[in-house]
Design a protein that fits this description.
homodimer, mainly beta, Jelly Rolls, seven-stranded antiparallel β-sheet, Cupin_2 (chains A, B), Cupin type-2 domain-containing protein (chains A, B)
Chain lengths: 121, 121
């Protein structure tokens, strides 16, 4: 029997900002939840598109040619190779859809980098 | 510059039940919106998992060993090969994530079957 995912409950369980947690796998992608606050880090994913869906709060995705501002129920796909930097002035809840291979800080390693094992824990 | 997707606006534009509309591509998957009401058709996707996320209303997914009931903010992944039949007593809005190759009625063709070209239109 299949077990539903309750996104609100998954967000409630998240203790740390910028620490994505995998809630489902669909084909070769993971669906993740993350709480964001503050500024992340400029990075790109060479071979992977990344979908952001805001569930609560407001997310600004800085791009080299401007920025995209997303509120609840709004989404954007950052195409592969596009450098971006997520920012949230206040606490923001986002759902991410990205390939299982995606490193959330892309080609950059910082103290915020979480391994896939950590994201699955 | 990237263009955000506003899910509420996408749902408002949908005129017909059971007629998914593609709103984004992320890697090898499409993100679709669909309005559901009534009962669909039993089917399976041999090689593709399918994610359902309910945005409004209540969705019942009948399975051969029971059923899953989803409300707003709840989601389930129907694994490849699992026969299922979506039902909604009242109007229900769902987001779907599934491979670009997925036929929404799976291995079954009915008068509700919509081609990928129709879903992209």
């Amino acid at each position: 029997m299949l077990v539903p995912i309750d996104f609100a409950a998954e967000f409630e369980r998240l203790a740390d900002f910028w620490s994505p947690h995998v809630v489902a796998r669909v084909n070769d992608s993971y669906v993740k939840v993350a709480k964001l606050q503050g500024e992340f880090v400029w990075h790109a994913h060479a071979d992977e598109d990344e979908l952001f869906l805001v569930m609560r709060g407001q997310l600004v995705i800085q791009l080299e040619d401007g920025e995209v501002v997303l509120g609840p129920g709004q989404s954007v796909v950052v195409p592969r190779g596009v450098r971006h930097n997520p920012m949230a002035a206040e606490e923001c809840w986002v759902v991410l859809v990205e390939p299982v291979a995606t490193k959330h800080t892309g080609d950059v390693v910082t103290d915020r980098t979480r391994s896939i094992a950590e994201q699955l824990a």
